[in-house]
Design goal:
214 residues; mainly alpha; 11 helices
Amino acid sequence: MSKKRLIDNKNVTEVLDILETMHPEAACALDHRDPFELIVAVALSAQTTDVSVNKVTPELFRMYPDAESLAAADPDEVMEIIRTIGLYRNKSKNIVRLAGKLVSDFGGKVPHDFESLVTLPGVGRKTANVVLAEGFGVPRIAVDTHVFRVSNRIGLTDEKDVDATEETLMKRIPESSWIRAHHLLIFHGRKCCSARKPSCDKCGLNELCMHNNL
């Protein structure tokens, strides 16, 4: 099967400029004050909305403001705080284990290298990339469901899995724009290019989008 046509390399920057015009407010939607709060919030956000996570983290971080206190927490008590979000039972255990690993292996601090981050319980490639980019300003592109869908739909990439999508995006987008592109693609997926019914009539990418130009 032949690959879908891709947006020309010369137009990739234009795509980002249009997305910037459409979504100037694009930013990390998870409330956090430091890398510890960020990594816990990202871990909690799996298969649930950022809005729902933001509703439970103020109380969570009031009770457990650092890795040491969360590592010593009773998972059942953590569960009661986060029970309104999806998979709360497993997530309560996972974030306590994550905090424990931070304390035992990293002095209670969130590491700022990819290899160390992915040794933490519940931290995969996407979460590690989010923490590096948002928590430490390291250029990375975290590919979540929105980034994967939008990138492959509009023709920035034409890949079958998230790892290949990440690799292609890193090749096609200037490194200085990786973090910003991540946020713009997420917001475009949430606000315009939805999974079931994309709002193509309201989209500024119509002339460039391969979804409309096949």
